[in-house]
Design goal:
410 residues; Rna Polymerase Sigma Factor, Chain: A; 5-stranded mixed β-sheet
Length: 410
């Protein structure tokens, strides 16, 4: 299997000294987001192992200020051009003269291009693709939390990773769980992968009342603490659909051999079934610190101080079949994945525009899938495409989605 064999090619070399111990350098793209903050929690627990070289954010310089104080990065990237012109940002630069600030829309790409041992790619959405691509040439290992990188450009990205001898280890809890499970079996014995889904914040809402759900209600996820965009994606199950596409590329597995189950407790993150009918589950507390810990330290295991399962307190684990009527957007994700080429990028772009519009109150929750359906069915797909085709398709799909939203919201 490509992703496993790639991981075994080399070990990360350290370049910083902490006391008498060498430390690895780490850059975190999207450090002020939920995954980025979790990554820094992990780094803080291993401060004698890692030197924070760089941090990036889009606009949240208040949290970035706190992170600079705590971790003393050498580089900080801020993408929002309006924030970079603000008095608060000018004060930030003045207060930290030893930090090299990278500014503007290419700032994260510039940061990702700086040589480092580990790059955590945690920028949400399609905005994370270009920085992830840049990191392939400068990082020895990418801990990949940005699923859109593989959704939009999976084949291209993994081929470039192989060319650059860059390790890719998934950080999504589901994919990290599969990755860890697959290290314990021979690939020829694998029958299928089973990804679990919480069902999102509206899993118990009557289907005919979904259109009444506000962004505040949708944003109240039952088990995970995530940003607003991913929490909406969890409610539509687009998030899981994107994860199926991601799993297809990461583990080189056919879509027909990837199953999704609704699992309310979010205790089992993924399962694998072997050809003899045995099923192996990866279980842990619902905290992103654990998959990040695994991604940073693989193939070694280190002590986890972020929480332990207490099965006797959980009592029971429940599973149910995915309801296509409740989650129609999931079907379009799988359809786009099977089409391949630019289709997943088009799907992702339409969804990002639709979710943003929902969060701004421009469309109803149930209209998110209408936007996706319209853009998918209005696009002519070409399977043989290059990276520029993907970026162009992303741009055109966004324009199409915005135009459609304008027609249904007026």
């Amino acid at each position: 299997m490509f992703i496993i064999s790639l991981f075994k090619q080399r070990r990360i070399q350290s370049v910083f000294i902490f006391g008498n111990k060498m430390r690895k350098t780490i850059t975190i793209l999207g450090s002020t987001g939920s995954i980025g903050r979790s990554a820094l929690r992990v780094v803080n627990s291993m401060i004698d192992e890692y030197e924070v070289l760089g941090l990036s954010c889009f606009s949240n310089i208040d949290i970035m200020r706190q992170q600079i104080v705590e971790f003393s990065p050498k580089f900080v990237a801020v993408e929002s051009e309006s924030i970079c012109l603000s008095e608060d940002f000018l004060k930030l630069k003045k207060d930290f003269p030893n930090v090299k600030f990278l500014e503007g829309k290419l700032a994260s790409e510039e940061l990702a291009s700086i040589e480092v041992d580990v790059c955590v790619s945690a920028i949400v959405g399609s905005a994370g693709l270009k920085p992830s691509l840049a990191a392939l040439k400068s990082a020895k290992r990418i801990a990949l939390a940005n699923k859109e990188t593989l959704v939009m450009a999976g084949e291209f990205f993994l081929n470039e990773a192989k060319k650059n001898n860059c390790e890719i280890i998934p950080v999504d809890s589901e994919h990290n769980a599969v990755f860890m499970l697959l290290n314990n079996i021979e690939r020829k014995h694998l029958s299928k992968i089973i990804l679990t889904a919480s069902g999102g914040s509206l899993r118990d809402c009557p289907v005919d009342e979904l259109g009444l759900a506000t962004s505040q209600i949708v944003g109240d996820h039952p088990t995970w603490d995530m940003g607003p965009k991913i929490t909406v994606d969890s409610a539509t199950l687009v998030n899981k659909g994107l994860e199926v596409i991601e799993a297809h590329y990461l583990f080189d597995i056919d879509y027909n051999d990837i199953e999704v189950l609704i699992h309310h407790e979010s205790i089992i993150h993924s399962l694998i079934e072997t050809i003899d009918g045995s099923v192996y589950a990866h279980m842990s507390v619902a905290d992103m610190a654990l998959p990040i810990l695994n991604a940073l330290n693989f193939p070694n295991r280190v002590c986890n101080n972020f929480g332990r399962l207490k099965l006797k307190e959980i009592g029971s684990l429940t599973f149910s079949e995915l309801d296509d009527h409740r989650y129609p957007a999931f079907t379009f994700c799988i359809e786009a994945g099977k089409i391949g080429g630019i289709a997943p990028a088009v799907l992702n772009a339409a969804n990002e525009i639709a979710v943003e519009s929902f969060l701004k109150g421009k469309i109803l929750f149930t209209q998110i899938v209408k936007v996706i359906e319209y853009v998918i069915h209005k696009t002519s797909f070409v399977k043989n495409c290059n990276i520029e085709d993907i970026f162009n398709a992303d741009k055109e799909a966004r324009i199409m989605a915005l135009n459609f939203i304008g027609s249904i919201s007026t």
